[in-house]
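Appendix B, Record 12. Input sequence as logged:
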Amino acid sequence: MAGTKAGGLKAALTNKARHGKDFYASIGAKGGKNGHTGGFAANRELARIAGAKGGRISRRTKKTTTKIDVTLAA
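Logged structural output:
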């Protein structure tokens, strides 16, 4: 475990000797390879169903309309 700059350089040399010169390049190449289109981006119908469920199970109280009787005295 590298705690200093010198320790980090020593660890890097050890990693390169143990796993090959392209150790860090292969780690960097893995970034972004997996897709990020899961969840609702992949299935619009599933998103619609989930949104409908969320609307039904809402914790907000239902909006009530009240009639205001306004009579003008003339």
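The mean pLDDT is 86.
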